[in-house]
TrEMBL record:
This is 5'-nucleotidase SurE. Binds 1 divalent metal cation per subunit. The gene is surE. The keyword Iron-sulfur does not apply. GO terms for cellular component: cytoplasm. Its cofactor is a divalent metal cation. Keywords: Cytoplasm, Hydrolase, Metal-binding, Nucleotide-binding. It comes from Sulfitobacter geojensis.
């Protein structure tokens, strides 16, 4: 198997090393792991692409490239340039430093990379490591992802149905904020919403008098509804959420039929 890996934390991020180890296990002794990742951190860019700026590529080693762009840019340049003669069989994005459960999903560059791969017709999975008091101070806070990642991905690939649809599936996988030995299992989960948790800003005034604002996240230890991603994560489970890029509220199509004229 030929696997492309990317992330949004940047080419030097420790989570990318974890993902490389997971991908190497998954690819097998005859497989290949290719890395095309952002040259600099791109957290929070979502599915952004550099539509009006070129993306500079730098080869750092065999099958290892840094791109001055977003995770979605990295997937695009990998598929249409770096790997155009040897396309990947699978795209993995992560392992993100921090969770991409619940509302975080909507902002995540890690998710954006997987989404772009799906739009390119490739199987794609985003992986993120939830942080909390039970794993933040571990020697390797990514150990839950490292130990359980390959097995979780194999189950996903084994159970994914063949589809012929406009917007193919991709997956959002979040590893719980616990040590590897304390992971209870894997649960299929919906995308949740943390009650009362939103992004905000913290204003600052620089010595020059210029005004700045830092974007701030909310409490990540708030559970979502039962059966959803962050609820399972905080209970010690790996969550797997199947997703599509189609944002249509399909359940409202009949109810809103009166809009037609």
């Amino acid at each position: 198997m030929r696997i492309l890996i990317t992330n949004d934390d940047g080419i030097t991020a420790p989570g990318l090393e974890t993902l490389h180890a997971i991908a190497t296990d998954l690819a097998g002794p005859k497989g290949e792991v290719w890395t095309v990742a952002p040259a600099f951190e791109q957290s929070g860019v979502g599915h952004c692409i550099n539509y009006v700026h070129p993306t500079m590529m730098t080869q750092l080693g065999e099958r290892r490239y840094a791109a001055e762009g977003s995770p979605a840019d990295c997937v695009l340049v990998a598929v249409h340039d770096v790997m155009k003669d040897c396309p990947p069989d699978l795209v993995l994005s992560g392992v993100n430093r921090g969770n991409n459960s619940a509302e975080n999903t909507l902002y995540s560059g890690t998710i954006g990379g997987a989404m772009e791969a799906a739009l390119q017709g490739l199987p794609a999975i985003a992986l993120s490591q939830y942080f909390g008091p039970d794993n933040r101070e571990l020697e390797d806070p990514f150990e839950a992802a490292l130990k359980h990642g390959a097995a979780v991905l194999r189950r996903i690939l084994r159970n994914t149905p063949d589809e012929d649809v406009d917007y193919p599936l991709f997956y959002n996988v979040n590893f719980p904020p616990v040590a590897a030995k304390d992971v209870k299992g894997t649960r299929l989960a919906t995308q949740g919403r943390r009650p009362g948790v939103v992004f905000g800003t913290e204003p600052h005034t620089a010595p020059s008098g210029r005004r700045f604002s830092w974007i701030k996240g909310g409490d990540q230890q708030v559970k979502t509804a039962a059966g959803s991603d962050a609820a399972y994560n905080l209970e010690g489970y790996v969550s797997v959420t199947p997703m599509r890029a189609d944002l249509t509220a399909h359940n409202m199509m009949d109810s809103l039929a009166g809009i037609n004229s």
